Amino acid sequence: MGDAAEDRAKAAELPEGDVIAVLLEQHAQIKDLFAEVKRANGPDKKEKFDALRALLAVHETAEELVLRPVSAELAGQDVVDARNREEADANAVLADLEGMDVESPEFDIRLEAFRKAVDEHAEAEEKDEFPEILAGCDEERRRDLGRKIKAAEAIAPTHLHPESDPGSTKQKLVGPFASMVDRVRDAISKAV
């Protein structure tokens, strides 16, 4: 798997709104956020980490609820089970990271290991699932799946609203990852 620019270039080759283009763009955003967390310090580092957690909650939950049922049909249940196991493992690591001081050296070490695991997971999706979706779904179905993921992304309560009180809006980005995933699940069920 390449860097964020390569993911964006691959996404740009696909029809606008295609589910694979949407997911590749999210992969690029995740890579960008990992780099931003690594470079940041102090409160900015915590804010960037919270943004990463929020995007991961949206991305992984949307994949589970929107993409994986189609992947099971086209790529097989073994592939889906492997991706779901990787996501469960990643969620456990993320829960550990949530309890750490973002300024600690141990946080940086664990974050780098987590980044590598997320990269490997995305690479497996791009190798094992995405080609099957591209080959097995017509453009209309891929756009429909993309719309569902974009709708979930738009209504999931994980982004700060620029006109809201900063004290209250920050609550949308903080809290345990599991709670964020629950909010995203609720948003997706309303979107699909």
UniProtKB/TrEMBL annotation:
Residues 153-174 are annotated as: Disordered. This is Hemerythrin HHE cation binding domain-containing protein. Residues 19-132 form the Hemerythrin-like domain. InterPro entries: Hemerythrin-like. Pfam families: Hemerythrin. It comes from Nocardioides terrae.
